[in-house]
């Protein structure tokens, strides 16, 4: 029987397979699939840089927030506003149009800069992982009316990714 990494690599050869579908089929976190991709497609960063990354992303404008569960993939467009720390949480101080919520500051263990194709479109996203390599949430770069990634966001994504 093939080990999981061999199965993943074989499944990645078929461009119709998404990272999420491979992970779901093999009952593993998306991270386990992404870490086998080329460095140009997945770059892992230690969570010690979490504040720096979130603060930088707050200048990117509207992003697509995504949270997957087996039953529901929730997505909404929002901006990342200022963040504040209190009582062990990173607080997203969202007003209308901005992300609001409270993230346990010790829950994020690694961050992934991801560049992959999905349904024929190239996409860039930033993923936040817990200690079980599960995706806590992710942000996708925005697209224009022609479904093209916004150039200024791509530059900011590439520059931030290159810092690490």
Write a short abstract of this structure:
The protein has two domains: 1-37; 39-163, HemS/ChuS/ChuX like domains (Heme iron utilization protein-like fold, 3-Layer(aba) Sandwich). The chain is 26% helix and 32% strand.
Characteristic terms for this protein:
164 residues, alpha+beta, Heme iron utilization protein-like fold, 2 domains, 6-stranded antiparallel beta sheet, 3-stranded antiparallel beta sheet, 9 strands, 32% strand, globular, HutX-like, Heme_Transport_Util_sf, HuvX protein
Question: What do these coordinates show?
Answer:
By secondary structure, the chain is an alpha+beta fold. Helix content is 26%, strand content 32%. The strands form 2 sheets. The protein has a 6-stranded antiparallel β-sheet. It has a 3-stranded antiparallel β-sheet with strand order 4-5-6, with no helix packed on it. Helix 1 packs antiparallel against helix 2. This is HuvX protein.
| Count of separate structural domains | 2
How are the strands of the largest sheet arranged? 1-7-8-9-2-3
Count every helix, treating DSSP H or I runs of 4 or more residues as helices. Answer: 5
- How many strand units? 9
> Which CATH top level class of the largest domain fits?
Alpha Beta
Class derived from helix and strand content: alpha+beta
Order of helices and strands: HHHEHEEEEEEEEH
For the largest beta-sheet, the strand count, sense and barrel status come to:
6 strands, antiparallel
CA gyration radius, whole angstroms: 16 Å
Note poorly predicted spans.
Answer: none
The assigned CATH architecture of the largest domain is 3-Layer(aba) Sandwich
CATH topology of the largest domain: Heme iron utilization protein-like fold
Q: What is the percentage of strand-forming residues?
A: 25-35%
Mean pLDDT: 93
- Helical coverage, percent range: 25-40%
Shape estimate:
globular
CATH homology superfamily of the largest domain: HemS/ChuS/ChuX like domains
> Distance between termini?
37 Å
InterPro entries: Heme_Transport_Util_sf, HutX-like
Protein name: HuvX protein
Pfam families: ChuX_HutX
Organism: Campylobacter sputorum subsp. sputorum
